[in-house]
């Protein structure tokens, strides 16, 4: 039987782990990995458990019965099932290339169902990896229509994750709302420093000694969504903006790929404005 | 009631977490943090649990009853209780200074009961921090006697942890055996590279671009004990051995302090030749 | 003859390095290390040169003659001469302890001439390291007087560097002006994120995955002075503010010590709002 | 006029920088960047200078005249000229993909003239990037013939750099000799730890807390060539060998790409068993 992943959260109180693990025992499962966190900020309990040797339906049932009293949200998924993913892109291909290569190499547990872009330049890359690619130049006039297409694609294809791989458009509040908790953006700075446009130029002007990248959930509050992953790299006075960009792109690709992996493995849970990441 | 820390290990099989958490529920405790690992290499199960709201004796009892069938080793300790510690040193004071300062500042949950050294040079530092200091110049003739003193000090003072803070003597196999699992050494290289003497000179000769430090349990197999913590720092061609030493010492202090903290918080467990570290 | 360090800057144009090195040759010196940077942002030329085998007075003279035409500022100093330093502190001792230990161990090329603080708590540490310590509780009423004392101390003792080792007072614009280019502060965040008070609390609230420290020159524009050095360390959701503080303090000590070393070795030059750092 | 890069080395003695810069002045050039290092280990002088505003032939001539007395090796090259590169590969595509994408994106100053492999699996990737691909299954019998083809390709195509992008064959001493100083390998460990085969398995067994990658020049002494670049990443007890491999591959790609860039920008110079890297 394939390994299962249980994610579970509810208001914190005594006895939760014992109840859940009671469900696991009842379903004949064995715990391969268990992580747990009780948030002092929100008074909420979170856990992620990998279970061997149990049937998914039976385990779901057993946990539901064992934890009835806790008003929990929980989910049992096959550990190996790839997350159905839509990627949004513009012109810069470094993040897209990295995601596609890792996916094809079996290194990311996702299934890239489509790519949508506001420029055509990355079409050959999509073709090489054999992924449907749709582009439409986005203007004030066409934006709503394109966002409707994105929304339709998500619905029609059971998309679970939308990745903004340096998609240089701001999503409308409606689309943000629609994608809440399932859209990840890569911002090319170490947030909260250097929000908005041209962060590498801002970093050069300020003369920082480290630059970075931040993967976060998309919210309508630009560059303010819950942070999933961040990385930095050392820079010095001799580097102009172009060199900062080049240095930073490696961080962007890697940070985004790591955030996607964490999400696809059900390791990221939103807790208010912050994330819990069970590594 | 103070927070308690449970560490527990036994041969892996289904039902262990459920059983332990049953004991916690029975003792009226609430789980603040739970980490668990089943080692595929040794087939052993390990967990570390922080429990609020329970009495230590009652919890110990309840877990013992609930897990009878598992032939487990386990221990319940007050989370805040400082670990009784003896530090061994030679001439270099950077690690000793760092440990003493952190301890006095309440940053390390240890109690430094004594310092023993094979040189007198660090006596004023010990005096400043008001710690008994004993030194004896160690030669082939005096080594056995000094080691007997160390052993006696450990026994007489209920020492739980012996820290070799750049103690430049090789311990006898007998003393290693006596201190097994409770002595931590800091080696001034990124093991397994550059074992033995003068690792910074070896690093310079080899022309590595990163140097590091390794904190590990002491075993009679020199520089081969289970690794607890490692760090590195970037270096370049222009640095001579003296500069590598200076760069490396900051890593040594920090790496050793982190390893001591992890140990004192019951976060380090030996699993064969490796360690499990519940951060 | 001791090694000399030349720092030299002027508006950029062809022929500068040739002219300076002509002076070095004329003085019988040999170049051990030469670093150079022409700032595209300010059109200014900067260099730092270590010279062996030359007399200081003679070299100064020779460079002055050889570079007359460039309207340069330059300085020739003994490489080994310790920088005369005043440290300002409050209650937190981790940075002070680190600086004093490194200084006494010969690891920082400074001479700590005095410590001034707005609390008495660090007096014993100053006494242990045998450094004059002056404290005065700073209020709105006493601030001007204490700043006058600081200024007098700097003048009377030929202080070259003032280090704010977690000195929790904002300096007046007048004192900032007086200390321009020779006062280094450590800020307990990765600037420009989390300026002002309680950066660790801000970091916790924002849910960042890395926290950091920034050493910068003091200017009257709070937390905006030219950055000298920055470091970060990984954190996660489970760490409360107290744990972030503890994690961050190691970064603060190390970052400040590195900035002090770079300054004392004449490796830091202000270029507008940024610094050039010749490592 | 395009920017030029001068690399120059000779036995160390006074006056070298002055002489070279005299040549630069004579050729009407301006120094954009100058780095210099005198190796105490080998008594050799090294410099790398970026020069604006000068003609290549005229500058070469002027430097030759100005530095006649120093028995130097030196070279003047167009800063922007791409380094003619041959890549050797086997089955693993992560390094190859990274190099090809960076090259096509203008991020690496190389020209990938060909790819030779001992497996066919990466042929489609080569085709996508439109690079001639040749594969031949290498056995004891065919090895000499394939190495002869490599050698011929290098000669026929004026190859300046051969990159072993996880090429899983040991080169013969003859080929190593032929490619001395112009072949870069990526080793999947933090050398000198874990030489030879299966370094990730070795790392798992030893229980290290950081794993890494090392880019080095190829020599006939396996895994012992001068190191160009190294990186590490943190790992923990829960990661099996497969996860270490996945974690490590990101380091391999990035470390190799950085080494290739440094080489192509004439920033790497061999100094005995070590490298000087002018960043």
UniProtKB/TrEMBL annotation, chains A, B, C, D:
PROSITE patterns attached to this UniProt entry: ACT
Gene name, Swiss-Prot/TrEMBL: purU
Protein name: Formyltetrahydrofolate deformylase
EC number from the UniProt entry: 3.5.1.10
Keyword Hydrolase: yes
Pathway: Purine metabolism; IMP biosynthesis via de novo pathway; formate from 10-formyl-5,6,7,8-tetrahydrofolate: step 1/1
GO MF, one annotated term: formyltetrahydrofolate deformylase activity
InterPro entries, A to Z: ACT-like_dom_sf, ACT_dom, Formyl_transf_N, Formyl_transf_N_sf, PurU, PurU_ACT
Function: Catalyzes the hydrolysis of 10-formyltetrahydrofolate (formyl-FH4) to formate and tetrahydrofolate (FH4).
Entry keywords, A to Z: Hydrolase, One-carbon metabolism, Purine biosynthesis
Domain ACT: 5-84
Catalytic residues, chain numbering: 223
Keyword match Electron transport: no
Gene3D superfamilies per record: 3.30.70.260, Formyl transferase, N-terminal domain
Family (UniProt): Belongs to the PurU family.
GO biological process: 'de novo' IMP biosynthetic process; one-carbon metabolic process
Cross-referenced Pfam families: ACT (PF01842), Formyl_trans_N (PF00551)
Catalysed reactions, semicolon-separated: (6R)-10-formyltetrahydrofolate + H2O = (6S)-5,6,7,8-tetrahydrofolate + formate + H(+)
Coiled-coil regions listed in the entry: none
């Amino acid at each position: 039987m394939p390994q299962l992943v249980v994610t579970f959260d509810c208001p914190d109180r005594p006895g939760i782990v014992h109840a859940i693990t009671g469900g696991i025992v009842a379903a004949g499962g064995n715990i391969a990995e268990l992580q747990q966190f009780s948030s002092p900020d929100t008074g909420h309990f979170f856990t992620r458990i990998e279970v061997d040797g149990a049937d998914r339906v039976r385990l779901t049932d057993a946990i539901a019965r064992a934890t009835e009293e806790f008003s929990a949200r929980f989910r049992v998924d096959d550990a190996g099932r790839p997350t159905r993913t839509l990627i949004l892109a513009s012109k810069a291909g470094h993040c897209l290339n990295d995601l596609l290569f890792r996916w094809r190499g079996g290194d990311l547990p996702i299934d890239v169902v489509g790519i949508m872009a506001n420029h055509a330049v990355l079409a050959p890359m999509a073709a090489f990896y054999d992924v449907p690619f749709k582009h439409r130049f986005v203007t004030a006039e066409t934006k709503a229509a394109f966002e409707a297409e994105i929304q339709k694609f998500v619905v029609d294809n059971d998309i679970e994750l939308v990745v903004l791989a340096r998609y240089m458009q701001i999503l409308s509040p409606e689309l943000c709302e629609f994608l809440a908790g399932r859209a990840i953006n890569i911002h090319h700075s170490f947030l909260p420093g250097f929000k908005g446009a041209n962060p590498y130029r801002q970093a050069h002007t300020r003369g920082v000694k480290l630059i970075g990248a931040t993967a976060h959930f998309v919210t309508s509050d630009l560059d303010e969504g819950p942070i999933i992953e961040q990385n930095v790299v050392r820079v010095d006075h001799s580097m102009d903006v172009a060199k900062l960009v080049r240095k930073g792109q490696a961080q962007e690709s890697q940070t985004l790929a790591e955030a996607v992996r964490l999400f696809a493995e059900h390791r990221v849970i939103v807790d208010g404005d912050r994330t819990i990441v069970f590594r």
